[in-house]
Amino acid sequence: MLAIYPGSFDPVTLGHLDIIERGCKLFDQVIVAVLRNPNKTPLFTVPDRIEQIRRSTQHLSNLEVDSFDGLTIDYARMRRASALLRGLRVLSDFEMELQMAHTNKTLSAQIETVFLATSNEYSFLSSSLVKEIARFGGAIDHLVPNHVAVDIYQCFAKTHPASAQTTALAPTPLPLTTEPSQEKPPGRE
Questions:
Q1: Closest C-alpha among 94, 103, 41, 40 to residue 71
Q2: What is the pLDDT averaged over residues 142-162?
Q3: For the purposes of burial, counting CB atoms within 10 Å of the CB of 29, is it exposed (0-12), middle (13-18) or buried (19 or more)?
Q4: How remote is the C-alpha of 162 from its chain's centroid?
Q5: Per-residue pLDDT reduced to its tens digit, 37-76
C-alpha cells in the first residue's frame, strides 16, 4: 500500500519527520511530496527542500521524496496511491484537515486520508514557528535536523545578520563570581 505525505516542508521539522517515520511503519511505501505552491514565498527552493528531506530520511528504505504542483489528489492518482497521510497537532488542524479530506473524497473515492496525531513533544511545532524563531536569532537546533538548522541560519544571515546563530556560536555564559556585587539596587542611593 502506497501513501502520499504532501506538504510544503519549508523547512522540514522534527514533527514532520516523526510523521514520516511512523508512516513508513504503517505503509509499504511512503512518498513525501513537496508542494510547489505559487501563492507562497518559501524560504527554500523545492530542490533544497527535497535534499533536506532526503538527508533527514536516509535510514528509511521505503521512502521516496518527490515534488508536485496542482491538486494533491491528482498527484496521488498519478502515483497510484491508496492513502494520503496527514499529521494533526491541534484541534484547528483537525477542522481544516477534515474539510480537505472530505473534499478529496469527492474528487476520488478510492483514496483514503489517514490522520496521525503528532507526538506530544512536537504538538506545538510548525515550519512557520521555526522560521520566526530563527529570524529573531533564537536557537532552532532542537526543532529541526542539524543540517536544516544550518541552512536556515545561513538563509537569515543574508537578510538578518543578527539572526545567524548556530549552537557553536551560542553566547558563552557569564562566569559566576564569589564576591557579592558592590552595586546598589536601583532606587536605593
A1: 103
A2: 85
A3: middle
A4: 23
A5: 888 889 999 999 999 999 999 999 999 999 999 999 999 9
Helices (H) and strands (E) in the chain, counts: 6, 5
Integer angstrom CA distances of residue 51 from 7, 9, 106, 125: 15, 11, 33, 21
127 in active site? yes
Query: For residues 104 and 172, what is the distance between their CA atoms, to the nearest angstrom?
Result: 52
Whole-angstrom distance, CA of residue 81 vs CA of residue 102: 17
Q: Which of 22, 77, 79, 89 is catalytic?
A: 89
Q: 89 an active-site residue?
A: yes
Pick the catalytic residue: 8, 16, 86, 131?
Answer: 16
- The pairing of strands 2-7 and 29-35 is parallel
To the question of pTM greater than 0.90 for the whole model, the response is no
In the set 8, 49, 56, 127, the catalytic residue is 127
Does residue 59 carry a catalytic annotation? no
Could you read off the pLDDT of 154-178 as tens digits, one per residue? Answer: 988 866 555 445 444 443 333 444 4
Asked about 16 being catalytic, the answer comes back as: yes
List C-alpha distances in Å: 139 to 31, 33, 75, 120: 30, 28, 36, 20
